[in-house]
Amino acid sequence: MKSILILYIFLLSSLVTLAQQQREIFFADVTIYVEGDTYYLTGSKGDGDGPEGFSFLESKDLKTWRVPAQSKNPQGMILTKGDHTFGTKGFWAPQIFKEKDTYYITYTADEQTVLAESKSLTGPYQQKEVGPIDGSGKNIDSYIFKDTDGKYYLYHVRFDKGNYLHVAEFDLKTGKINPATLKRCFNQTEPWEATPNFKSSPIMEGPTVVKLKNKYYLFYSANHFQNIDYAVGYAVADSPYGPWVKYKGNPIIHRSIVGENGSGHGDLFDGPGKQLYYTYHIHNSPGKVGPRRTRIVPVVRKWDEKAGVYEFSVKADEVIVPVIKEK
Q: Where is the secretion signal located (predicted)?
C-alpha cells in the first residue's frame, strides 16, 4: 500500500512538473511564417500580456513552441510600441513576409494599418518614417499579397456601418496604397456570416489571399469575434479585385466542425511534408471569450475538375493545440 502511494505521488509530481513546463498559447489573429524547417508564430497578445507589440515563438513540429534562441529579450519581442513604430494601443493582426533581403510586418495599431521592416526575421521591426499606411480613415486587418506579375495588393478592413473587406494596389517602396484602385470586395450576403448569437453590424475580416492556377482565393472570417459562430470561409475570383464568388460549402472552420467556439481569424501556411494548414484562434472557454487560444488545423485541398477551382476543407479530427515549452 505504501509503495502504491509513493508511486501515485511520483506520478502526480511528474504531471505537475510537465504542466509547469508546458502551457497553451494565447495568441489571437494568428499567423505563422515559415523559413527553412522552422515555423514562427505571432499574433495579437492578450490584455496585459507583456509590452504592447508582437512577439515570436518558434517550432519544428507545430506542437511545441519556444522563444527563439536568437531573440534579444526573454519574451521574443519583434516589434515594440514606441521603438520607431506607429501606434499607442490595439496592436493586432500581424503578417510577416519577405522581399529580397528585407523582412516586413504589416499590422494594426490605433485602428490603422501599418508597415514596418527589418533585416532580421526576429526583428526589431521598425519604421523609417513613423506613420500608418493610409490615414484617410480607420482600417484594420491588413494582408499584403504579391501577385505573380510582381504587383502588391493590400487586403484590409474598412469601417462603413460595419466591417468590410477592401483591396487596393500597394507600393512596397513607399508603403502606401493607390487610392484610385481601392475597392470593396463583397457585402454580407450569407446566413453563416450573420448569426443571431451576438448582434452586431456586418463584420467580415481577417483576410488571407493565395493564387492557385490563375484563380485568387480570399479566406476571411465573419460575425463579431465575440460571437460563438465566428467562423472562416472563402471566395474565389479571376482577378485580385474580384468579382468574388463565395464557396457554397462555407464556412469551412466553425464550432460545428472543429468543436470549439469563436474559431477564426488566422492564416494559411505549408507545414511538414508540404501539408497545408490554417492557424486560428478560439474563445477561451464556452462562457468566456478572452484571452483567446491558438489552434492549428490541417487543410484539405481538392481540385474540382468541372468547376475549375479548388475546394477547401479541414481535418477537424487533427486539430493541434500548440503549447509553449518553458524549459
A: 1-19
